[in-house]
# Entry
Amino acid sequence: MANHKSAIKRIRQSEERRAYNRVYRSRARTFVRRARTAIGGKSVESAIEATRIAVSDLDRAASRGVIHKRNAARRKSRLMKQLHAMQTAQK
# Structure
């Protein structure tokens, strides 16, 4: 356990930040999971909408510093690649 006042404050700050970051990271994962499920389904429109929401949430998490911007870009790229493959398979 921390002995210095500054170390105690730092622990308190990091706990608050961890809880804050956890919400946005979890939201991004949830929306990406929903998008992948929609891409695996039949409806192209629902897959496009779910992917749009997931991309938006990944951007939000990256802008807040919860995930790295390149991590968000990589996830968005993979989602869009899957969506495109689904759309071409439907045609």
Summary: The radius of gyration is 18 Å. The chain has a mean pLDDT of 96.
